[in-house]
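During the second year of the project, the team shifted from modelling isolated chains to modelling whole assemblies. The rationale, set out in the original proposal, was that interfaces cannot be judged from single-chain predictions alone. As a representative example for this report, we include one of the complexes processed in the last quarter. Its constituent sequences, exactly as entered into the pipeline, are reproduced here:
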Amino acid sequence: MSEHNARSRRRGEELINAIHTAVLEEVAEVGVARLTMEGIGKRAATPRTTLYRRWSDPIEVLLDALYHMHPVEEPTPGADDLRGDLVRALRLMVDWALTPAGRAVASILTDPKGSPRVHEALFERVFANRGGTFTSTVLRHYAERGHFPAELLTPVVADIGEALVTKRLIDTGAPPSDADLKAIVDQAILPAVGLRPA
Amino acid sequence: MSEHNARSRRRGEELINAIHTAVLEEVAEVGVARLTMEGIGKRAATPRTTLYRRWSDPIEVLLDALYHMHPVEEPTPGADDLRGDLVRALRLMVDWALTPAGRAVASILTDPKGSPRVHEALFERVFANRGGTFTSTVLRHYAERGHFPAELLTPVVADIGEALVTKRLIDTGAPPSDADLKAIVDQAILPAVGLRPA
DNA sequence: ACGGTAAGCTACAGCCGTGTATCTGAGCAA
DNA sequence: TTGCTCAGATACACGGCTGTAGCTTACCGT
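Output from the structure prediction step:
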């Protein structure tokens, strides 16, 4: 007795959303390796029994959360500003990476014990829904409009921006500033597509 | 009673080396997050009590191992082959990354719960001893000899090769082939220093 | 208003890693 | 040879996570 429940009982979607949010936060904070039903339950303020009714282990909860999370925003290239659009695409990537979902994905990708299953599920859900990587959407757009030779847009070139942003995130732990992103665009991406900035 | 010990008892350095090897292998396999005294002890075939006599927890064992491991080999730029030297530098990096020590380092860098202490110890030991990143050693050498303008060798440019190799390792899990490395050099690094390959 | 579904609450046995406390006996030095 | 040091082998209590079981009770549809 005693009104030990200030909030009313959650059911269905509301509860599941809370759990999804909880897993993503949890994995972002402690990593896939340390993900436990206990931790998820505590964070979502739900007993473990509720979790076991629906999922068999923490990884399943995580996968389910990834399948239901909002897709990553895609860069929308404007009219005539390749440089600006590239910076915006990278900014989009950084913002997403700092999200719980982004951190969760990072944790999964770098887990030495990550099973192929999880890896695949990740690519299906998070990356396949999008047109490609962040910068390559922009680059393809401008290549089609003849701003630079399309044959220069190789897989390696499409990866340059994301690779440098990722490295910076790993090395320093801090998000790159706009100046950093501009430097990446000017000094690495643009030269690779044959456009040396003035 | 029963020669339950085929091998004789290890002492001092021999034992410690075995333990160091064990931690690095262990962390490479399961990640820092799942590192336990139990696991290290099993792999080194030594009781946990021996570990506790010297170290207080698994991280300490790992740090000690990192401090005592062989430094990373440095690229030695040859006379007049920037392209070839860059590929060799990246190859060196890939080879090292596949090493237990390399995998251990990767695991540490990407651990969400990684303490600043471990992070710092890592940079002191593994990176500070070297002249810089793998490709930057090569690039600096050729910049000094006037093969390209030295002001193009920015921090961003110095990171391009390592960043792309890292991304590939993370994405595919498989080591890049020589063709991949050549593509990285030709399509990303050389253009960035103003040298478009023929 | 009623009844079914499922969330919330214990409880429990089992496993695994922890940290400590002994005890033994091998290896080494004086 | 003697004696010290320290690796090796148990043993144990503790705490955390697991997976399951049983019960109560809030919510919701009819």
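The CA atoms of residues 157 and 192 of chain B lie 7 Å apart. The domain at 82-192 of chain B is CATH 1.10.357 (Tetracycline Repressor; domain 2).
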